[in-house]
Amino acid sequence: MARHFKKDRFILYLTITGVFLVHWIHNDLAAHPGKFAVSLLNNSWQVIYVIGINLLYFEYALPFVTSGKLNRTIATPLSIIIHLVVLALGLYAWRNLGTLLGFYNSFRSFSDIGDALLSAVSLTPGAFLVFAVFKLFFDYAQLKYERQQVLTEKKQAELLFLKSQINPHFLFNTLNNIYSLSQHQPKLVSESILRLSKILRYLLYETGNEFITIDKEIKILTDYIDLEKLRYSETVAINFNYEIENFAETIPPLLLIPLVENAFKHGVSQVRGKRFVDVKCVLRSRELTFIVNNSSYPASDNPEVIDNIGLSNLRRRLHLLYRDFELITEQKDSVFSANLSIKLSSHV
Question: Would you tell me how many other CB atoms lie within 10 Å of the CB of residue 20?
C-alpha cells in the first residue's frame, strides 16, 4: 500500500505543477503573444520553487504543527502566515537567482525592490490556496481509500474466520454420524467412510477458493445427504431436488450445507415417529432459492426460533457477502422450515 501511496502523491504534485504552468503561461501569452518559449522557461523556473516550498510546508511543517505537540489553535494560523511570508520573500530571491543564471527573464521591469516584492506577494496567496485545495482533496481521497482497505481486510478476515468454523463443525457432525452407524449398523461403516473421504477431498481442495461453481456445491450436498441416508436408512424420508439453469454459476463454498446439517442434527435426530427432510434448490436468472423442510418438535403456541451456531454463522456470512438476500426460518406445527433466497448479482 505504501508504494501505491507514493505513486499517487507523485501524480498529485505533477498535476499541481501542470495546473500552475498552464495558468501562468496562459496569463503571460494573453499579455505577450508569441513569447511562449520565454514564458515556459520563466514559469518552469518559478514553479520549481513554489511547488518545492509548498510541498515542504504541507508534508513536514504542517503535520508537525498539527501533531499535538503544539497548541493547534495558535500554531496552525501562525504557521500559515510564516509560510506565506517565506513563500513571497523566497520567490523574490528565486526570481533574482534565475535572472542571474539566465533561467528567468521578467516581462516587466520593476521600479524598485518594493515593486518586485509586491509582484511576488501578489502571486503567493493564490498559489498557496490552489496547492492547499488539491492537497485537501488528495488527503480526503487517500483517507477514504485507506479506510475502505481496512474495512475490506476486516471483512475478509471475518469471512475466513467464519469459514474456518464451518469445517470443524461439519466434520464433527459427520463423524458423529459414522460413530452412530458403527453402533447400530457396522456393515455400513466402510461405505460411510468412503463417502466421508469424498467430503474431505472437497473440503481440502475446493473450499479455499472464494467462489465455486454451483454444481460442486450440489455434489457436496448430495454426498452429505447420501451419508445421512446410510445412517437413517428407511426411517427418514429424505428428498433432494434441484433445478439449476446454469451449473457454471458461482457461489461461496459451503454456503448451503449449514441448512441441511441443521435439518438432521437439530431436526430429525431429535424427534421420533414419522420423520422427513425435504431439500430443494432452484437457480434461475441468477436468483438462488434454497428451501429445507424437516420434521421437528411440535411448535408451542408462541414459537420462537433461536438460531444455533450454524445458522448464526450463515446469517453473518450472508450479510458480509450479499446485499440482496433473505433467510427465513419458521417453526410451524411439527415442521421446521428454512427458506433462503439470494440475488447472486448482489455480491459485495
Answer: 22
CA pair distance 332, 334, nearest whole angstrom: 6
325 found inside a domain: yes
d(CA 258, CA 106): 78
Rounded Cα gap, residues 17 and 50, in angstroms:
9
Note whether 261 and 319 are same-domain residues.
yes
Judged by DSSP in three states, 276 sits in: strand
> Are 38 and 24 spatial neighbours (Cβ–Cβ below 8 Å)?
no
Q: Does this model's pTM top 0.85? A: no
- Rounded Cα distance between 274 and 269, Å, is 12
C-alpha cell, 77: 494560523
Domain extent, residue 213, equals 185-346
Q: Which of 170, 172, 252, 157 is nearest to 214 (CA)?
A: 252
Residue 179 included in any domain: no
* Per-residue cell: 40: 515556459
Q: In terms of domains, do 13 and 141 share one?
A: yes
- Report mean pLDDT in 10-residue bins for the chain, 348 residues: 63 92 93 92 95 92 82 88 94 93 88 87 92 90 76 61 57 73 74 76 72 90 86 85 94 89 82 88 95 82 58 85 91 90 90
By 3-state DSSP, what share of the chain in percent is helix, strand and coil, each rounded to 5? 65, 15, 20
